[in-house]
Design brief:
The protein is an alpha/beta fold. It is built from 13 helices and 11 strands. The protein binds zinc ion (ZN).
Amino acid sequence: MNNKIDIGNCKLCGSLFSSDTIEIPDWFNSSKKCFYFICPNCKSLELKKDIENIDYEDSPQNFARKKDSKLVRVIKSTISYTHKINYNKIINASGKKKNKGQLLEIGCGRGHLLKLAEEEGWIVTGLEPQYSKYTEAKNNVNGEIYNSTLESVNFTYKYDVIILWHVFEHLENLGELLNKTKRILADDGVIIIGVPNISSLQYKIFSNNWFHLCAPAHNFQFSQKGILSLMNQSNMASYTAKHFDLIVSITGWFFSLQNLLIKPNNYYWHYLQKTATLEKNKKNINFVKFILTIPIIITFTVLGSLLDFLFGPRANLTIVVKHN
Ligand SMILES: [Zn+2]
């Protein structure tokens, strides 16, 4: 154990952390715990980097490199229309629907969103540090795709829209990242950021078993107040957009309900993804319970997603950011 931990301040709102931490099960191995500081002001969580957190088998990098199984690919292609719905919501939130110009996605994955943007007339650029996703994105999109992070690229354009879709929570130096993003944002440009929302109904219900916590791959678990404070501290104007993300909602309910009913956590996910964690846990799973609980989980997933849609606060938080 490392006892010399610099507690420091919340990187989002600047408040001094107390020594209070919250234990969140490691996403890959729920018998291990990760520790997060709790900001007393904005209630966001920040990963406490110490020996316990670093010494685990499935690093965020490994997680990021896992490939989809065939079943997952079939599921994803059947629901691929949700990409289009999500794309429309993101572009609507940017207010640039009728003013298509340069669009950059940081962490573009396989390029689903960029492909749709390109089809609608945007000039697109993508950054994707994971090599396998980068190669798929290159095949999907005509625009420039870099196998890189933001720090290592010299941009020649200013962008009208910059998207960070469920990547911000994985990153560390958010202030530096925002400064660099600001420099490449057009004067009237818009940054759209999507993150899991710990002010959500799902987090209130499932707490540490919430699927979208993804500890310790997520350095930050953002509250709405925390992420808006960060933008304010970075001298950016920001507000939250109304945005119901169907996939974030459904996966949140489905896998978190499983975590409540059957251990180990995220077993269904590992089953679908055929991860190494699945092999390790095979002996510990009760298959009768595993099958019998599926109808219950599906029922409550439908009801829960409806609750998200109608009332919120929703599992996905979309932030619109502009120059001040
Ligand atoms: Zn804070």
